[in-house]
Design goal:
Helix 12 packs parallel to helix 14. The chain has an eight-stranded parallel sheet with strand order 4-13-12-11-10-7-6-5. It is globular and about 95 Å long. It has 20 helices and 15 strands. The chain is an alpha/beta fold. Helix content is 39%, strand content 11%. Strand 6, helix 9 and strand 7 form a beta-alpha-beta unit.
Length: 524
Amino acid sequence: MRRQWYLGFGVVLLGVLLTLIMLQDGQWFLVLLVPIVALWIYDLVQKKHAILRNFPVLGHARFILEFFRPEIQQYFIASDESERPFNRETRSIIYQRAKNVRDTVPFGTEKDVNKIGYTWVLHSLAPKVASEVEPRIHVGRHENGSQPYCASRLNISAMSFGSLSPRAIMALNKGAQLGHFAQNTGEGGLSPYHLQGGDIIFQIGTAYFGCRDDEGHFDEKEFQAEALKPQVKMIEIKLSQGAKPSHGGILPAAKLTAEIAKVRKVPLGHNVISPPAHTAFDSPIGLLHFIKRLRHLSEQKPVGFKLCIGRKKEFLSICKAMLQEQIYPDFITVDGAEGGTGAAPLEYTNHVGEPLEAALVFVHNALVGVNLRDKIRIIASGKVATGFDLAEKIALGADMCNAARAMMMSVGCVQSKQCDANTCPTGVATQNWRLQRGLVVEEKKWRAANFHKNTMKSFLELVGAMGLENPSDLKPEYFMRRVSAQSVKSLAEVHEYLEAGALLQATLPASFKPHWEDARADAF
């Protein structure tokens, strides 16, 4: 901070001296250029704002508009909650927490508390302080030779090298190291930029990037070389992604560099498209034996899978396979249809996949119904940005949460929606070197760590306000939702919750009966 002040003072002093010299020589027309040049130099060398580094002088227009935002918005544009996918209120709280500045709100809520869908928590008259609330949870088995992972309740969701720039990945990973949380690699492979000291969840997608042979099939040796690295704490098999389920990933050729091609083991000059399905298995039983195989190859690190819920019978088929084979994933990541992506067809983004809340309740119910909930952790992924988001998802049935876009914003993303065009103005989602220059890793790593720390603080305070010492004790009946102008229900009443073993009884719950009867352990 002091260095930044000295730099600014030096530029201003230089500008004043040049101005005096020009005035003395009568060069009035050049006087106007001096402050512009001085500002251009300062913007170019400062490290806090990627927009100003990439667009000197011009970038200040954004901050000027931001300063007058309340008046412009109030009289000409929209409210804090009208923008999508992340409204201004949410973006502002992310930036404030990332910068470690004041994040309180004056004058009361702007939300319409009588609006249908408004949700709140039931606090306690015997609250706990945040320091009394357990912030972490174990994932994996406690058996001889196993390597369970003690995870934060909030981690970085899957974002690949290629979708994100090297600098963004490094900033996130170094932030994860500072804050003791984990970063998911996404399906693009484990790059050198992921190995900056932070914990890693190594994701394997349908193209097996980073662990594939020349034909694009899974390669045990390549996988083992990556999975045994000490930074890798868990392995995740991606079955589908919320924003584009059953479609496969897309990396436009414009963003494919020689370095990315080397990490992914693909040829240059073409769009890199992941196939929609795996070739290492083709059935629920096959999936479970693949999990067992990866667990063995990784020397018993936690292994799980990620999916967006579509046909319910297919997930129940996996549950039946678990019962039959007695093989269980260590965790299941449930990705909601509202999840983000760098590139996807409009139809998939808007109309395919189940939203996170309903999907989360379904997966939780399914595991409870077959008496396996205590063996498997559930991770919720999809538009998680605040402490309330964390608390609500855990109350609905998750154990922990992943955030992607919120983490991107913490290191500079301004929701310009140019992720698929290689023109991200802040250097977060581009492979363009000139734009990447704006993102200073040593500055932004603190932003990622701060966002995590302050969001977790908010979450732990909220759990404590409910009188609880462990987030695992959160229940859907602690959350209330207005469902009509005259009616309020708890989330336990909004959603059906099954009793333990309900799917193993002769009489099945009506909402599960057709899907369960149609499910087969040997076929999706």
